[in-house]
Automatic annotation (TrEMBL):
Coiled coil: none annotated. It comes from Roseibium algae. This is Enoyl-CoA hydratase domain-containing protein 3, mitochondrial. Gene3D superfamilies: 2-enoyl-CoA Hydratase, Chain A, domain 1 (3.90.226.10), Lyase 2-enoyl-coa Hydratase, Chain A, domain 2 (1.10.12.10). The lineage of its organism: Bacteria, Pseudomonadati, Pseudomonadota, Alphaproteobacteria, Hyphomicrobiales. May play a role in fatty acid biosynthesis and insulin sensitivity. It comes from the Bacteria. Keywords: Fatty acid metabolism, Lipid metabolism, Lyase, Transit peptide.
Amino acid sequence: MSDTAASPTPQDTPDTPILGTLLHEGVYRIVMQQPKAMNALSRQMMSALSAELTVAAENPDVRVILLGAEGKVFCAGHDLKELTAARAEADGGKATYEAIMHQCSDLMQQIVRLPKPVIAVVTGVATAAGCQLVASCDLAMAVDTATFCTPGVNIGLFCSTPMVALSRNVAPKQAMEMLLTGESIDASTAKDFGLINRIVPRDYLDQVVQKYAEMIASKSAHTLKIGKEAFYKQLEMPLDKAYDFAAQTMVDNMMAVDAEEGINAFLQKRKPDWKDC
């Protein structure tokens, strides 16, 4: 597949693609392009993201996925105007709310279950379900001015679904602090909490993120798939079951072509020739 791109634009217009994409050296960038709407997770945005992630999962040329956004807000969470409009429906919006919350939950689980690493690239505010989006990604890099919060409690709507992703990435007391206070934390605090991996000055972000992603993309895609799947599965198991599962995963991994090639390449002091199987 050749490089493909949809250039991000600073303003939302009817002609502006909701997402921009670029594939280069195995790294697939997906950029949310609705800065005026604060890249909110509207039903349209969630559908577009899910469809693009499916494309990326099925494309063998894609080895790592970067998820970023245009504008000062990485993602403002659910579209509150969309939610409010649904109150005019006969059931007060209940059916719409159920559909939206399930759609969001499915999107977050899709990211976790995707066979390829997904890295959030946060250049602004990540709030509520936007913070959930960051927490759902396998890794996260942020500029030093990025901020994070789960402010639902401030408007009478506890961030219950963001809580699922947050509590699986952040220590319980830190997660509860964010959920109960609704206050923003800066990038340094987010790194201390375990929500993000690295903080990068904005001027160097593209260079550092691309290098970081290309390093991961250089690994065996088969090995990355095995490892990501095993990581999330064992987290939900008791210790003894986790070790039994991990041991069997290691055995299965050892039988793979790329494991044999990788070990031989290491012993022979040469670069491995991955077959991704």
